[in-house]
Write a structure and sequence with these properties.
Blueprint lengths: L2 H4 L4 H4 L9 H19 L4 H18 L8 H12 L7 H19 L5 H9 L30 H20 L5 H17 L3 H5 L6 E2 L12 E7 L8 E6 L6 H13 L22 H15 L8 H13 L4 H8 L4 H7 L4 H15 L1 H6 L1
Antiparallel strand pairs: 1-2, 2-3
């Protein structure tokens, strides 16, 4: 058995020899996508990662009506120029992500170990080429490439968001309409996301049994910590895990969780369903539902539409820094692998920086500080 036969995604494993195809070009292209999908699955990448990548490759083929063995650098440049035009130009970070994806597929196709180059030569008389280079790809110069309008919320903005979420409950009740129970759940959910700095998937995948005690903070009872079991995976690995402690500055969340369990959750009749956050149909909430909950509260509070749910996580990390927690502690609470990631999320206020300067001034130059 040769090397090509044992490689997941090789042309021989996807397109057995001796078969005749009515549309050879489409068959080879479909085979390339299937082979690339197999290659990624052997690396334990998830379907939600693979599927968008395949769709992007199909999108590029549809754009120029050219198959991968017909691609040129000029075709790539035309595609991204198209994405930058129009009334909704592609974001910088999105464009770089697209280029990374297409470059991976391009390198897979031209890699001789997978045999696609030889199939293209045999069937079409042309060999696919590398179409990305240093002159037509985005250089990663900044750690933070997201929309600068997506930022941490101030303390007043966080309070306004929570007040608006609570207000929606009263509005729905006052109108005698259905949905007050769901609005009450959404208000509690948003508060928990902020109080523990959770990602959206981390929040919806929480089970009742993920709430636990912290022996060092016995006063919080069974709400002293949350065990996150579905944190962001890396490199095709399984979801990472971490324990997020309830902090004294966020201890108001204990009352929120107590009310959720004693007054609200049972009204959904969840039965034995393990999910912490359940729907009216006794199922687990989706990440899309959490997004909708934030958007409704955001609009009711009159906050900047550019802010999104993930801004609550930014706010949590920033506010922990302003509470003077050590950087490594914040990194552990947030579940970041690298300290640089925590730094990207941290956007301390001018007021905090002035307090820090004032404290430093008093400690190092007491006489000068007294004179001021």
């Amino acid at each position: 058995m040769g090397q090509l036969d044992v490689l997941a995604g090789s042309a021989q494993s996807v397109m057995p020899a001796g078969l005749a195809y009515l549309d050879a070009q489409q068959a080879v292209f479909d085979g390339m996508l299937e082979g690339w999908s197999r290659q990624q699955r052997t690396r334990f990448l998830q379907l939600e990662t693979i599927a968008p990548r395949l769709l992007l490759v199909r999108r590029l083929v549809a754009f120029g009506n050219l198959y991968p063995w017909q691609w040129t650098p000029g075709e790539m440049e035309a595609f991204f120029d198209h994405l930058r035009s129009g009334h909704r130009p592609i974001a910088y970070s999105t464009a770089r992500g697209y280029q990374v994806t297409l470059r991976m597929f391009n390198e897979y196709v031209v890699d001789p170990r997978y045999g696609w180059s030889q199939i293209c030569v045999d069937k079409f008389g042309v060999r696919p080429e590398l179409v990305f280079n240093e002159w037509n790809t985005i250089t990663h110069l900044s750690e933070a490439e997201g929309d600068p309008r997506r930022r941490s919320l101030s303390y007043d903005e966080v309070q306004a968001l929570f007040d608006a979420a609570d207000g929606l409950v009263e509005q729905i009740r006052g109108r005698g309409r259905k949905g007050a129970l769901s609005a009450q759940r959404d208000a509690a959910l948003l508060k928990v996301i902020y109080a523990f700095g959770l990602r959206r998937r981390e929040a919806v995948m929480l089970d009742v049994n993920d709430l636990g005690r912290n022996p060092k903070m016995a006063q919080y009872g069974k709400y002293g910590a949350i065990r996150v079991r579905f944190a962001k995976a890396a490199g095709g690995g399984p979801p990472r895990r971490r324990t997020v402690l309830t902090l004294p500055e966020m201890d108001w969340v204990v009352a929120v969780l107590t009310d959720w369990f004693t007054e609200v959750r049972a009204l959904f009749s969840p039965g034995s369903h393990p999910a912490l956050w359940v729907t009216e149909r006794c199922g687990r909430m989706s990440t899309r539902s959490v997004e909708h909950a934030f958007n409704r509260a955001q609009a009711a509070a009159g906050l900047d539409p550019a802010l999104d749910l993930h801004c609550l996580r930014h706010s949590y990390i920033t506010h922990l820094a302003e509470f003077d927690y050590p950087h490594q502690f914040i990194q552990a609470q947030a579940g970041h692998r690298y300290s640089s990631s925590t730094g990207i999320y941290t956007h301390v206020s001018d007021e905090y920086r002035n307090r820090l300067l004032d404290r430093t001034l008093h400690s190092r130059h007491p006489a000068l500080a007294a004179a001021s």
